[in-house]
Amino acid sequence: MSQNDNLFKKIMRGEIPSSKVYEDDEILAFRDIAPAAPVHILIVPKAPLDSLDELTDDDAMIAGKLLICASKLAKELGFASNGYRCVINTGKDAGQTVPHLHLHLLAGREFIWPAG
Ligand code: 5GP
User: Fold this and answer.
1) How far apart are CA 55 and CA 77, in angstroms?
2) Pick the CATH number of 3-107 from 3.30.428.10, 3.30.2000.30, 3.40.50.720, 3.30.70.1230
């Protein structure tokens, strides 16, 4: 699948509707269609990066922005004090299903550790 055709590119272009919670020139954040927790937001860079595995030193800024976006949303949406979990599934064994880098921001319940 080319980068132009992946699901998240279609969401970014508005070809597939999404429940958007944040957008700027570099990042789109929207609610997961099949939430794994009461709050489940996907934070996606607009740059064509297939996974965490593709990042180089040149991507330090966008990598940081994904984390800072998660932290800001946690505060703005009111779950920072209770806690939250950030997950980046990378590759087959981790269960990555959409070939575009994305960070899962999960909150609203307790999470077990180690994760299953
Ligand atoms: P992954 O498994 O690649 O880490 O995460 C992909 C996520 O995308 C899954 O949690 C899945 O529920 C979500 N997802 C799949 N299709 C759609 C969709 O059409 N809209 C939204 N908002 N999320 C989707």
Assistant:
1) 29
2) 3.30.428.10
